């Protein structure tokens, strides 16, 4: 440990730089080994953060310089994309307080400006981490939504849209938009909405389906709802949901047969 009676000035922190960085890297090495972050990367982060902290103390501005904010953000993004908890990013920064406390003793604890700066660094890293994690969640949610709304061409002029899972407002909007887009793109005149993968149908789900059917009808396409299982049929009747204005069939095959009949098509065995 260095002289604990000395005032912890930026000049003293610069003189102790190499030893402090080595101690910091050692302190972090065990906890970050499981994340497959090599020691060289850890050392680079520590070195740049340490220098940025000293420069911020020398400037006396009391805030975080932009380059230090950018570095903290990049560190947070690194951890967020590895799927780690936000506490890990804060621990990376706050561990510097522990290292300085061991090396400088009371002088480190009495350096109010240094303590405030480390706190600001830790809070900024957590904010950046949470912001990045929210971006990742939004992107993944949109990707899942796109995958969960596939419109499949079954025949010329006939589309199929299998719906799997609960049909909430967000998915219902995506279903309607995707279906109308494909109707406009392909000029289809029939669309089969297969709900065999929907666990249950309530009033809200039925309303979403009815709105989708009505929107498609305005574009000149007829929708057929298939996959209505006995349990769903009982729920629809018990809730008093009126689907009389919509063509319904038990299975996708029955729905496709109806579309063929409407288009004067028939499937026959090969002679």
UniProtKB/TrEMBL annotation:
Pfam families according to UniProt: RsbRD_N, STAS
Keyword set, alphabetical order: Phosphoprotein
Gene3D superfamilies listed in its UniProt record: STAS domain
Annotated transmembrane regions: none
Stored InterPro entries: Bact_StressResp_Reg, RsbRD_N_dom, STAS_dom, STAS_dom_sf
Domain STAS, first and last residues per copy: 148-259
Superkingdom field: Bacteria
PANTHER family referenced in this protein's UniProt entry, alphabetically: RSBT ANTAGONIST PROTEIN RSBS-RELATED, RSBT CO-ANTAGONIST PROTEIN RSBRC
Protein name in UniProt: STAS domain-containing protein
């Amino acid at each position: 440990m260095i002289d604990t009676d000395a005032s912890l000035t930026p000049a003293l922190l610069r003189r102790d730089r190499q030893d402090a960085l080595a101690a910091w890297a050692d302190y972090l090495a065990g906890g970050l080994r499981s994340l497959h972050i090599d020691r060289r990367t850890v050392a680079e982060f520590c070195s740049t953060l340490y220098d940025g902290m000293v420069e911020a103390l020398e400037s006396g501005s009391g805030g975080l310089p932009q380059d230090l904010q950018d570095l903290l953000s990049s560190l947070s993004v690194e951890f967020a994309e590895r799927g780690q908890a936000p506490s890990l990013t804060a621990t990376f920064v706050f561990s510097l307080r522990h290292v300085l406390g061991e090396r400088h003793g009371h002088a480190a604890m009495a350096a109010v400006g240094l303590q405030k700066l480390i706190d600001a660094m830790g809070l900024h890293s957590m904010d950046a981490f949470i912001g990045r994690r929210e971006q990742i969640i939004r992107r993944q949610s949109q990707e899942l939504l796109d995958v969960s709304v596939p419109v499949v061409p079954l025949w010329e002029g006939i589309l199929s849209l299998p719906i799997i899972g609960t049909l909430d407002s967000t998915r219902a909007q995506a279903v309607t938009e995707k279906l109308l887009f494909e109707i406009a793109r392909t000029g289809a005149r029939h669309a089969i909405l297969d709900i065999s993968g929907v666990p249950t149908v309530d009033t809200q789900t039925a309303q979403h389906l009815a709105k989708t059917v009505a929107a498609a009808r305005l574009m000149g396409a007829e929708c057929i709802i298939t996959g209505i299982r006995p349990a769903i049929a009982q729920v629809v009747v018990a809730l008093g949901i009126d689907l009389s204005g919509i063509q319904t069939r038990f299975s996708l095959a029955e729905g496709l047969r109806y579309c063929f009949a409407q288009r004067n098509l028939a499937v026959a065995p090969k002679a």
